[in-house]
What does this fold into?
Amino acid sequence: MIDYNQFPNESRVWIYQSNTAFSEEQANLLRKKLQHFVAQWQSHGAPVKAWADIKYNRFIVLMVDENQEAPSGCSIDSSVAMIKEIEVEMNVDLFDRLNFAYKTDSSTVESADRIDFSNLYASSIINDQTIVFNNLVNTKIDLENKWEVPLADSWHANMV
It folds into this structure.
């Protein structure tokens, strides 16, 4: 797999958040599956320069250098099909955009649906300084700088 650092800052990113954490064993199996996928990923017959990993045993991150070969609609569809396959294999939900992930005081990553998230805020279990994950980032530079942000600085603040 191509090294993460070899991708330019404007590389395209997709983040899929699991509703539950993956075990270490599951995360290792997923890494192998993702590495296999990105190694053979193509757009109109041309290889796509891609990278993938599991973060915090909860997030699948895919990245593509669109300067090399931009993924076509069909190639993006193939990545979505692979993610849906993972959902079935691991019995998780990777497409629920209203399942919010956050870091606890002990820096573990938890998630809650919109209503529970709002209740956690109302009961001061989470607050404006709680780190939340903005899975809507779509470039490498935003992944590095805007993915993990205080709740007060994210769109999540509109949900509490």
Summary: Helices lie at 24-40, 73-90, 114-122, 140-146. Residues 73-90 form the longest helix (18 residues).
